[in-house]
Write a structure and sequence with these properties.
509 residues, Leucine-rich repeat, LRR (right-handed beta-alpha superhelix), alpha/beta, ten-stranded parallel beta sheet, Toxin ADP-ribosyltransferase, Chain A, domain 1, seven-stranded mixed beta sheet
C-alpha cells in the first residue's frame, strides 16, 4: 500500500497551518465529496462502497464518519489516482488555497479521527529511499501518516533488500483505524496531519538500511486547526456543544487533545452533562492543565457515572495535581474508571507515592500509563508495594523513566508472583545486564505477562543469554522488544535458539 511508504514526499519547508476546514458544517459523505468529484475518477462508486461497508460503525462514530475513513483507505486501480494520494499531496503543498475543495471532506474525516481513542506506544513507518540526512532535529509530517504497530509488517511493505529507511515512532496520539478501514487486516495506525516529531536518534545497521527514531511531541505552534470551532468568546466546551448539535449520536469517545485548554476550560468541560452521563473515553492530553485542573477533574470524577478511560498525558500536573486526582481515586466513589494516562507530566517519586496510596484502595484500574516522567527506583519501590495488594492492573507503562537496575529489581519481585499483569513497558529505563537478570528471574515463575518491551536500554549479549534461558521455561510471553540495545549476532542467536521451544510470536532486535 503506497500510503504506508510516502514519507519521502513530506516537504522540508515549514508550511502554513492547515485551517479553514473546521468552519464547514458536518454533512453526509456524498455531500462532503461533491467539491472534489472532478479530481477523482469513479468517486461515486467508491463512496457507495464505503457507505455500504460502514452500516454498523464501531467506536461510536456515525455511518458517514466511519465511511469517510473507509473511503480514505480504498486504493484505486492506479495507486496514484487514490483519494489518499491526492489528498496528501495537497496537504503537503505550500499552496493552501488548493485545500479549499477538500474542506468539507476534511471536516468529516478529521472529526471521525479526533473521536477515536488515541493510541500511545511505538509504531513503525518506512520508505524505499534514503532520507537519513534530512532528519536532524525535528520534522513536521503534513500528510495523514499511515503506520503499523510492528516492524515486521512494515518490512513486508519496504522489503528486506535495497535502499530503505525505517522510522520507529513513539506516538502519543495515533489513531487505530482498523475497524473502519477497507483493509481490515492491516491494523493501520495513522498520525494526524501536522504531527510534530522530534529526532531522538538515527543509525545505519548496514549499507542500505537506515533507522530513524522519532518521538511525537506537542508542537511549538498549532499546525492544524482542530475540527471543532473555537470562537473567541466561547470556551472549548461551548465549541464542543455546537458540534453536538450536528451529531447523530451521544459521543462515547471525546478527544480534546492538543487544544491548549486551560484549567478553567477543563473545569467547565468535566461538568458538562454529556461528559458526566455518556462519555466513556475522555482525552485531555497535550493541554495546559496544572494542579487546579486536576482538582476539578477529581471533583467531577466523584459523581461521574460513565467515564472508563481518562488521558491526561503531556500536561503540567506535577505532584500537587496528582495529589488532588488520587484523593478522588481513594474515595472509592469512582465506579468505572479503568484506564488512566499520566505520561509526560514531570511526576516524581513523591507523586508516585500519592498514586500508590490510591492503588491500595482503588481496585478498578487495569491500565496505568506513567511514561516519560521522573520516576526513579524509589518511585518504583512505592508502586510495587501497592501492586502486591492490587491484583487487577494488567497494563503498566513506565518507559522513559530513570528506573535503573534497582528499580527493575523491585518490579521483578512483584512480577514473579503476578497473575494479572500482561503488558509491561520499560523502554529507555536505563536497564543493564543486571536489571535484565532480575527480570528473567521473574519470567521463570510468571504466568501472565505476554508483552515485554525493553527497547532502548543497555542490554548486551549477557542480558540476551539471561533472557534466552528464561524463555526455555516461560511459555506465556508472546511479544519481546529488544530494539536499539547492545546485542551482537551472538546474543541474537541465543535468543533465536530459545524461540524454537517458546510461544513468542514476535521479537524485535
Amino acid at each position: 500500500m503506497s500510503r504506508f511508504l510516502d514519507a519521502n514526499e513530506e516537504p522540508s519547508q515549514t508550511l502554513l497551518p492547515i485551517a479553514g476546514y473546521e468552519k464547514e458544517e458536518l454533512v453526509s459523505l456524498e455531500e462532503a465529496v461533491r467539491p472534489i468529484t472532478t479530481l477523482l475518477y469513479d468517486l461515486d462508486t467508491k463512496v457507495y462502497i464505503a457507505k455500504r461497508n460502514s452500516q454498523k460503525p464501531a467506536d461510536g462514530l456515525t455511518c458517514n464518519q466511519s465511511a469517510a475513513i473507509n473511503l480514505y483507505t480504498i486504493e484505486w486501480e492506479e495507486p496514484h489516482d487514490s483519494l489518499y494520494t491526492i489528498l496528501n499531496r495537497t496537504l503537503r503543498s505550500s499552496e493552501r488555497k488548493a485545500l479549499k475543495p477538500w474542506f468539507s471532506y476534511l471536516k468529516l474525516f478529521l472529526t471521525a479521527l479526533y473521536k477515536l481513542p488515541s493510541t500511545k506506544g511505538v509504531i513503525w513507518r518506512g520508505i524505499r529511499d534514503d532520507v537519513y540526512d534530512q532528519y536532524n532535529i525535528d520534522q513536521v509530517w503534513w500528510g495523514v501518516s499511515s503506520c503499523t504497530a510492528t516492524m515486521q509488517v512494515m518490512e513486508q511493505f519496504v522489503g528486506r533488500s535495497g535502499v530503505r529507511t525505517l522510522f520507529t515512532i513513539e506516538c502519543i496520539s495515533g489513531k487505530a483505524i482498523g475497524a473502519h478501514s477497507f483493509y481490515k487486516n492491516e491494523n493501520e495506525i495513522v498520525l494526524m496531519p501536522g504531527t510534530y516529531l522530534r529526532v531522538v536518534a538515527k543509525w545505519s545497521p548496514n549499507e542500505n538500511l537506515y533507522m530513524i527514531h522519532l518521538r511525537e511531541e506537542n508542537p511549538p505552534c498549532q499546525f492544524i486547526a482542530p475540527p471543532f470551532i473555537k470562537e473567541s468568546s466561547q470556551t472549548n466546551e461551548t465549541s464542543f456543544n455546537k458540534d453536538l448539535e450536528h451529531s447523530e449520536y451521544r459521543p462515547r469517545s471525546i478527544n480534546f487533545a492538543g487544544r491548549k485548554l486551560t484549567d478553567t476550560d477543563v473545569e467547565k468541560i468535566v461538568k458538562d452533562k454529556t461528559i458526566k452521563n455518556h462519555c466513556t473515553q475522555l482525552n485531555l492530553s497535550g493541554n495546559n492543565l496544572t494542579w487546579y485542573g486536576c482538582w476539578a477533574i477529581g471533583n467531577a470524577l466523584r459523581t461521574n457515572t460513565a467515564l472508563i478511560q481518562l488521558d491526561l498525558t503531556s500536561n503540567k500536573i506535577t505532584e500537587k495535581g496528582i495529589q488532588y486526582l488520587t484523593d478522588a481515586l481513594r474515595s472509592n466513589k469512582i465506579q468505572r474508571l479503568t484506564r488512566l494516562g499520566l505520561g509526560g507530566n514531570e511526576i516524581t517519586d513523591n507523586g508516585v507515592h500519592y498514586l500508590s496510596e490510591a492503588l491500595f484502595i482503588n481496585r478498578k484500574l487495569v491500565q496505568l500509563d506513567l511514561e516519560s516522567n521522573r520516576i526513579s527506583e524509589k518511585g518504583a519501590q512505592r508502586l510495587v508495594d501497592a501492586l502486591k495488594t492490587n491484583k487487577n492492573l494488567t497494563e503498566l507503562n513506565l518507559w522513559c523513566n530513570p528506573l535503573m537496575d534497582e528499580g527493575i529489581q523491585y518490579l521483578a519481585n512483584v512480577l514473579a508472583d503476578s497473575r494479572t499483569i500482561t503488558k509491561l513497558g520499560l523502554e529507555r529505563s536505563e536497564i543493564t545486564e543486571q536489571g535484565t537478570k532480575h527480570l528473567t528471574c521473574a519470567l521463570y515463575s510468571n504466568t501472565s505477562l505476554t508483552q515485554l518491551s525493553l527497547w532502548g536500554n543497555h542490554i548486551g549479549d549477557k542480558g540476551a543469554q539471561y533472557l534466552a534461558e528464561s524463555l526455555f521455561i516461560n511459555k506465556t510471553l508472546t511479544h519481546l522488544d529488544l530494539g536499539k540495545n547492545e546485542l551482537t549476532h551472538d546474543g541474537a542467536q541465543k535468543l533465536a535458539d530459545a524461540l524454537r521451544s517458546n510461544r513468542v510470536q514476535e521479537i524485535i532486535f
